[in-house]
Structures are given as C-alpha cells and as structure tokens.
Amino acid sequence: MSSPNTAEELQRLTTVLAAQREAYGKAPYPSLQERREHLDRLEKVLRENIDAIVEALNTDFGGRSADETKIAEILTSLEGIKYYRKRIKKWMQPERRSLGLMGFPGEATVIHQPLGVVGIIVPWNYPLYLALGPLIAALAAGNRAMIKMSEFTPRTGELVKRLLASVFDEDHVAVFNGDVEVATAFSALPFDHLLFTGSTAVGRHIMRAAADNLTPVTLELGGKSPAIIGADYPMQDAVERIAFGKCFNAGQTCVSPDYLLCPEHRIDEFVEEFKRQISAMYPTIIDNPDVTSIINDRQHKRLQEYLVDAEAKGAKVIQINPANEDFSNTRKMPFTLVLNVTEEMRIANEEIFGPLLIVHGYQKLEDAVAHVNAGPRPLALYYFDWSNERARYVITHTHSGGVCINDTMSHVAIDDLPFGGVGDSGMGQYHGYEGFLTFTKPKSVFRKGRMNATAMLLPPFNRKIHDWVYKLMLKG
Q1: Beta-carbon neighbour count of residue 162 at 10 Å?
Q2: Residue 151, SS3?
Q3: Domain residues for 151?
Q4: Are residues 380 and 352 in the same domain?
Q5: Does 471 map to a domain?
Q6: Which end of the chain has fewer CB atoms within 10 angstroms, the N or the C?
Q7: Catalytic residue among 247, 254, 262, 404
C-alpha cells in the first residue's frame, strides 16, 4: 500500500504534466530576457540557502563533507548558470544554412525550438547538482521541467522542492519526491524528453518505459571507469590526482576511478605512495568531517560484501586506516586497495561506487588498452603520461564517455565540454552547447523569395529548360 506522501505525489504527476503542457502551449518560445531571468531566480535561491543545502545533505548521508557539498553541488551549479546565461543569446539566433541550387532564390535557417516539458530523474549521490545541472540547461533552452528526486536523500529532496517552489510556479518547474512507485510512474509519463542519471540496470528499465511514449531519452549511467598510469609517469603526481577522484564523496561518483591499470613493476610503488597520500589527507576517518559516509546501510553492506567475496577468492585487500580505528559502528569506510582481482569476483564485474580501488598490473600499454576494450565502454577514462603520442594512442584506441589526461573527474566541471556516456555507460549528453541542443529541436526553415524558380521545373517535362537544369545539377 502506498504511503500518504507517495499517493499524493502519484496524483500530482498527471495534473502537473497537464498544467505544464498547457503553460508551454501559451508561451512556446520564451524570450532571451525571460530565460535569463529564470536562471537568475535559480542563482538567487542557491546563494541564499547554502547553509541549508549543506545541512540537508549532511543529514541524508549521515556525514557529508561540507566542502565537498559546496564544491560539487553548489559551486558547479552556480558556474553552470553563469555559463548558460552568457551564451544563450548566441545560441537562440537562427543559423544560416547554404541553399544549393534547388533552394535558389530563398533563405535557409535552423532555429532551436524548446521541446516542451522535460522530465529529470535524479540519483542520490549528488542530488542537488544532478537536479539543477539538467534543469539549468532545460531552462536555458526554453523548456518547463518536472524533477523526480531520489528517495534515498529525503531531506535534500524536500529542500529542493521547497526552494524551487519559492521561485517557480508549478506549471513551470515542479519537484516530486516519494519511493520507487513514484519513480516508475514518473518514467512512464509522455515527456518531450527524459533525462535519467543512475545505474545501467535501472537505465534499461527507464528506456523501456519511455519507449511506450516514444519519449527521447538521455541516459547518464556509470560503469567501471579505468585509470591507467604510464610507464614513466611520476608516481607521486599520479597518486595525488587519482586519490582526489577516488576519495571525493567517498568514491560515490559515477566518474570515480573504478580500477587502476599500473605497470606491473610499479605496483608496490603505487601502493606505498597511495598509503602515504591517504594518510596525509585523512589522518583519521570516523570523526573527520572531511570524510563522507556511505549513503545508507544497503550500500555499505554491498561494499563490505565485495571485500568479503574478493578476499575469499584470493584477492589481497589493503585497508588504509592511519589511526587504527574501529569501523564496526559507522557507515564510514577506510579507503581500500584490492589486488589480485579475478573475473569471478563480484568487485570485478559490478560498479564499485565506493572507497574501494582495484589495482591491476600490465606489461605493455597495448595490454592495458586491450583490458579496457574487453569490458563495457566506461563513462570516463583517465590516463597519466606526459607523452602526447602515447596519450593520443589511448584516446583513439578506446571508447569512453570522456577522457582526462593527467587528472581525474575535472572534465565534468568544465561547462563547455559535453558530458555523457557511450554503450553501457549511457547515451546522449548535456552540459555546454550540447545541453542546449539536447533540450531543443533543430527546426529547419526555408523561406522562398518572390521569384518562383521551381516554376521552371513544372510539367510538361522534357523541355529544354529541364535539360539545362539537369546538366547544371550534374556538373562536377
């Protein structure tokens, strides 16, 4: 039986969708000034509620680093607003296209028309940013939006609902909370576009539900993103940058490094340097406000089971616990390296999404590339090497949603780069100009001049004018 909150949200879904469709029909192409004003509202409500956002996320996680929230949720959202506000004037201009012989005389243009009502399904790991990031792009493109927040971050979901309701009418932007029943009903609505961020398994269900309505989808999924250390890359530099990507949000990030490919003869060097780096960053863990907790008991149990399974099947598990703390009564976990991993282990086949890092050895760079290509295409790939030639080889011989050379995760924060997966890690993209394109329809417009040149092509055929036109068209 549905909870009162779930029943209420289910009832709202179709009502709000109808209201948004009606409102869009009355204003199908918001002006530049209106779109900028919509973004200004978002910016204002974000800046005025930083402390409330930090507190809500801290409560939901049972310990969320305030700085990680400010960096990854609030700052990135504000930067996205700034980016789109500056560029939408240019993007809204009709694009001139060439005519060709058949279009003369006339004018050919493309306008980017808002799609209408966009659905956004938000995961629990970055619930503010992964709600507002797509919303910013959708509003810049002139749309209305319905957002389904994750049931695993209820405080943040209620806060986002309240904050957006304070600056947008429900027929413009509406937020929904509730359990999986609401999410299932939400994904089955006939949106004009649906964007989902989450796991590959759930992404398949979302796509099936959307197919019944022929709703186009953008799926931002995850997978096992690799990091590869080049043969002679300075280990301290590599570890410092890999540790950032692995430790941020306790590894609960879709583009966090999932496994490392390290030259075999340098694995011991990597392990010692990683221990040193983690101990310097986090001399204690349990009471350290810089360390984020695992989101809930279910996810914590899953990660523990990975380690038990791997160790039972012969893996070497190295927990980095500088203060020798007891983790039995907390959802915080020590950062952990897992060596000698084989394919029959769960950790080798499922996305980790936590503070565990697999370490594989390789002999030749071609072997590392072959290892990556043997699995599903990842959302991100990280390669560490000062050699442009070898970096180019890795980039062109692998498929991934995005690549960082000599860094981890930072490509996601560059607003002008598209973000999206490929294969099992997703389809479609947003961020940047590509986000504007995702939430608009490029509509071709041909305007005929006063002179009707096509009159020359009217029947009866086989006249001299037809011979002349055909020769002109076939001319090289």
Answers
A1: 13
A2: coil
A3: 4-221+428-441
A4: yes
A5: no
A6: C
A7: 254
